[in-house]
Fold Winged helix-turn-helix transcriptional regulator.
Amino acid sequence: MAAVMEGPLADLGAWKTDGCSLVKALEIVGTRSSLLILREAYYGTTRFSAFARRTGLTDRVAAGQLRHLTEAGLLAKRPYRDEGGRAREEYVLTDMGRDLLPAVMSLMQWGNKYLQDGRPPLLYLEHGTESPVEVELRSGTGRKVELENLAVRLNPGRRKPQDD
């Protein structure tokens, strides 16, 4: 089964995916190194050397991804100075970066289910309650939405940007 494509979208051959939000998102976070940097930011990593060490990326690749994610608005630089050291910058999540957490958690949840033989390396729990954390599609009414019940339609309020 598939999503329910409504209106002019029902004929998949009659329209193009111009301006697709998934394509735009993948342009920013569609690489292994981008997702590893984000994972580490969610875990609390802020310093360049720790990002490179914990992800296994070369310094050059880590620097490029940190710059890319900062320019895209997912991370921000914040100055810090260790006692007796020179001023440096660390990387912190912005609201835009924090809002991507459910997507990254979804990928980890999928990997836990299908790629770890039932034994995921980490458990994700609500701090204080120990309740497992899961990502799933829910409607505004709070009901879980399965693929077959997902309707897709054109947004009548969207104006097409010039570069789409």
